[in-house]
């Protein structure tokens, strides 16, 4: 007897992106949650309105991405971001705020956030930001990145020798221009997987949680130069 064909369908399960929204403006938070819930592959697992609620919800719900405002009744969202990244490094934190002060932006980067977006961005841009953040991509508007980099000053005294290889430094320079992994790969003639491996090594060696934090460290230590212009 001949063997019958196995025609069983094989499905690949792709987990939804688990999103936590924390903002003390209920109307904004509810509207954003409604938008994200209509997006395929996204699951808004919770909302909050305070720093403590952000920390508690991140612990309990284990989101992939946290959208976090800066100014809240019981403190700063930057404090919440730092605690979340310390307790759960794999969670990507994106600051979504109307505050574009350079000092706040710099503090957010030092806290290990993945991105910093203005509330003036369109809904479509926020949706794309969530998807990109879930992949670990750095998210910051070009004009904000330029402002951040201009505000950084290389230390006068020689910094420690870089622990990065020449190839990793090349990747870090490209990241400082605002390029994502795919574009870095094209510019350096690397596969996306190779770029991803280099990025993981950079974060591990520098003991930081995000690409933005790695770029900040690289410039501060004098390992890479402040770019004169960002990516288009």
Polypeptide structure, described:
Helices cover 47% and strands 14% of the residues. It has 232 residues and is α/β, with parallel strands linked by helices. It folds into two domains: 17-140, Response regulator (Rossmann fold), CATH 3.40.50; 153-220, Arc Repressor Mutant, subunit A (Orthogonal Bundle), CATH 1.10.10. The strands form two sheets. A six-stranded parallel β-sheet has the order 2-1-3-6-7-8, with helices on both faces. A two-stranded antiparallel sheet has the order 4-5. Strand 7, helix 5 (123-134) and strand 8 form a beta-alpha-beta unit. The model is unreliable at 4-13 (pLDDT under 50).
Key terms for this structure?
232 residues; alpha/beta; Rossmann fold; Arc Repressor Mutant, subunit A; six-stranded parallel β-sheet; 14% strand
Task: Please report the distance between the alpha carbons of the first and last residues.
Answer: 64 Å
Gyration radius, rounded: 19 Å
Structural class: alpha/beta
How many helices?
10
Tell me, briefly, the overall form.
globular
Q: Which strand order spans the largest sheet, edge to edge or round the barrel?
A: 2-1-3-6-7-8
**The CATH architecture of the largest domain:** 3-Layer(aba) Sandwich
CATH topology of the largest domain: Rossmann fold
Number of strands: 8
SSE string, helices as H and strands as E: EHEHEEEHEHEHEHHHHH
Specify the CATH class of the largest domain.
Alpha Beta
- Quote the average pLDDT: 83
- Uncertain ranges: 4-13
- Into which percent range does the helicity of residues fall? 40-55%
User: CATH superfamily of the largest domain, called what?
Assistant: Response regulator
